[in-house]
Specification:
By secondary structure, this protein is an all-alpha fold. It has one domain. Helix content is 79%, strand content 0%. It is built from ten helices and no strands. Helix 1 runs antiparallel to helix 6 and helix 4 runs antiparallel to helix 8.
Length: 284
């Protein structure tokens, strides 16, 4: 199958999945109301729009290979790498938080004020949806939030963006790094949140390189789940949780500086340990 036909199938699968998800969730919303129902609808939306789209796209462009194997979900790396991935994600979170705040302070020229207001309105709507999804008290709500916001979206989005789309680009472009960057940008842009465009782009790059270097989608899934789960955990234990802290002055606090610098040092150490682990395997 030609690259153009493969891309066409990927786009069609995504569009059909998105339309089907919108229709199903729209109908169910007429009968399902309340806090828990909203979270269940989020799960259904992720599964249909990204999960099923990825499965069908992998089936059609996989040249007879089983979809889960095509997407890199049939093999699992060394358990130590899972620990390293989680440690890396935890280490870079202070830096990601700082970049998120920088991104949230974007300002357009006066001549583009209308465009800025448009993006601000989208951001506010997205923030309200996030806060609604994170609402709830008690262990039951916490577990459901983890499933609806951390686990399900991470698995389904990684299946589509890394397991299908990035794999397609890497296989049909001379430079795999460009393929990873393109996938990361589309991954960030499709979330329709301008204030989170840069940090989500960085997250997409991390996830992309994890998949590219390991060949296993599970590492990027674990990293994605870790990133999302941290938001759920912080929101659950913080009564004053906000989606983005736009007060840059707060980062002048010595504790924040220590967290950012220390986190980057730990992240560098994790990368070094990863390389040592790979080197040891190649020698054996």
């Amino acid at each position: 199958m030609s690259p153009f036909k493969q891309l066409f199938i990927i786009i069609i699968c995504f569009c059909v999945g998105f339309l089907l998800s919108t229709s199903v969730v729209g109908v169910l919303y007429l009968f399902m109301h309340g806090e828990y129902s909203y979270k269940l609808l989020l799960i259904i939306s992720s599964v249909i729009s990204f999960g099923l789209s990825a499965l069908f796209a992998a089936k059609f462009i996989g040249n007879g290979e089983m979809p889960f194997r095509f997407m890199g979900m049939a093999q699992s790396p060394n358990f130590v790498k899972y620990i390293l991935v989680i440690a890396f994600m935890l280490a870079i979170m202070p830096t990601i938080e700082f970049i998120s705040s920088l991104n949230a302070c974007y300002s357009f020229p006066d001549s583009m004020k209308g465009i800025e207001d448009f993006f601000r309105a989208i951001d506010e709507s997205a923030n309200q949806s996030t806060l609604k999804a994170l609402s709830g008290e008690g262990v039951g709500a916490f577990v459901l939030n983890l499933i609806a916001i951390a686990i399900t979206p991470a698995i389904c989005e990684e299946m589509f963006f890394r397991g299908v789309f990035q794999k397609y680009l890497v296989g049909n472009m001379k430079n795999p790094h460009v393929a990873i960057l393109i996938t990361a940008f589309i991954f960030s842009a499709i979330h329709m949140q301008f204030s989170g465009l840069v940090p989500r782009f960085i997250l997409g790059m991390v996830l992309g390189y994890l998949f590219y270097m390991s060949g296993s989608l599970w590492l990027s899934i674990v990293a994605h789940v870790t990133n999302n789960a941290l938001v759920v955990i912080v929101a659950f234990f913080s009564k004053d949780f906000v989606t983005v802290n736009s007060d840059l002055g707060a980062y002048a606090n010595p504790w924040w500086i220590a967290a950012i610098v220390g986190g980057l040092v730990i992240a560098g150490l994790v990368v070094w340990l990863w390389k040592r682990l790979d080197a040891g395997k190649s020698q054996s």
